[in-house]
Design a protein that fits this description.
The protein is of the alpha+beta class. The chain is built from four helices and six strands; from the N terminus they run H-H-E-E-E-E-E-E-H-H.
Length: about 150
């Protein structure tokens, strides 16, 4: 379990009070991965939401035709960033892959349990999903910029 104080660092939990942060922290676990560890693959069922504690994670996307592999990478993400948001949003399929490009420590949450906690506490869920939508929007813009650079 991660300390509730550690979670305060992440914008996803900015509007949570101490009691809710403790409940959220109880759903967490800390994971450590070596360099080049595949955290998840694009197209897999999304079960886990991750926060980066230390290190660096690269998101990947297959830009090839159907049945063809052409993996493109986004810029590395580091401390404070969120990955695996698809675990919180239907249809719960990872839209990109993710791997560590250096030794990394992550906080992991079972997406289903976290979603259930917010379903039972909608006032806290509102703020969480508001912040999560900001993450999703920023990733969309980043991917659009990258796609534009490939076309030009």
């Amino acid at each position: 379990m991660i300390s509730p104080e550690t979670l305060r660092f992440y914008s996803l939990f900015a509007k949570q009070d101490s009691s809710m942060l403790t409940k959220i922290a109880m759903l967490s676990q800390e994971l450590e991965y070596e360099t080049d560890h595949q955290i998840f693959l694009e197209g897999e069922v999304a079960k886990t939401l991750y926060l980066i504690l230390e290190g660096s994670v690269v998101l990947t996307m297959n830009m090839g035709e159907v049945g063809e592999q052409n993996i493109e990478e986004l810029e590395p993400l580091s401390k404070g960033e969120v990955i695996g948001w698809s675990s919180m949003v239907k249809p719960h399929i990872y839209k990109m892959g993710a791997y560590t490009n250096q030794k990394s420590r992550l906080i992991a949450f079972d997406g289903e349990k976290l979603h259930e906690l917010f379903d039972n506490n909608p006032e806290y869920g509102y703020y969480f999903f508001q912040r999560l939508s900001e993450v999703i929007g920023a990733r969309l813009i980043s991917k659009c910029v990258q796609l534009m650079s490939l076309v030009v």
